[in-house]
Amino acid sequence: MRHVLLLLSFSLVACSSETKPSPEPVASASNTPAPPASSPAPVVSDPVAELNGMDPRKPVPLQPMMAWHQKQNMMEHLVAIQRINAGLAEEKWDEVAAGAKLIGSSPQMKMMCQHMGAGAEGFTELALGFHEKADTIIEAAKKKDVKATLAATAATLESCTSCHAAYRQDVVDAATFKARTGSAHDPSMMDHGH
Ligand code: HEC
After folding, report:
1. Scanning 60, 132, 171, 184, which has the fewest C-beta atoms within 10 Å of its C-beta?
2. Domains assigned to the chain
3. pTM of this structure
4. How far apart are CA 116 and CA 135, in angstroms?
5. Do the strands 167-171 and 58-62 form a parallel or antiparallel pair, or are they unpaired?
6. What average pLDDT is seen over the chain?
7. Which of 85, 125, 161, 164 for mutating ligand 1's site (highest number of atoms within 8 Å of CB)?
């Protein structure tokens, strides 16, 4: 019996020593007002705050409509990569270029990225860099160069993954958006580009 207990306590120690220190609490977790000092500690049940507490990425404040729009853009980005890859496998260069054009840069795309990144430092720059990398896929496809197209696609995907590693959505209301970006959300921005 003592062996079992010893083993158990050892494994508990082993476990706790592996536990990573939790990341710094992020801004949105502090949106919840603090209770008055006199009241007993509340039993907080806010799963979203709990999730945000374990996600160390920088929050990108977005109003619900912007967040949904961004998710749609993201799903389209992945479809674009799918088309590029499928086109490349069959050396259908028009298809590769058409896929890349969906994520290539344009004035509308630029405006959208500026709007989306208004409350998160560095986000817009990463986004614009991403679209410019996608432009290089179009150039490589025009030359019908398999290796160069693959390399440009890899560089583009690297932009996807580095942004995902650094930022997460933070869905906020209009007042919070305004406070954190210094500008009001302009719904007309959502009508253009992807
Ligand atoms: C400049 C930043 C940025 C770039 C570049 C970027 N993403 Fe995202 N993406 C995000 C953010 C922010 C989210 C939301 C993550 C979260 O809150 O968990 C997201 C989420 C997603 C999602 C999940 C969508 C959903 O339904 O929830 C997919 C899929 C995705 N991205 C694909 C891509 C692909 C593919 C690329 C590149 C071709 C890409 N993204 C490039 C920022 C970016």
Report:
1. 184
2. 58-182 (1.20.120)
3. 0.79
4. 21
5. parallel
6. 84
7. 164
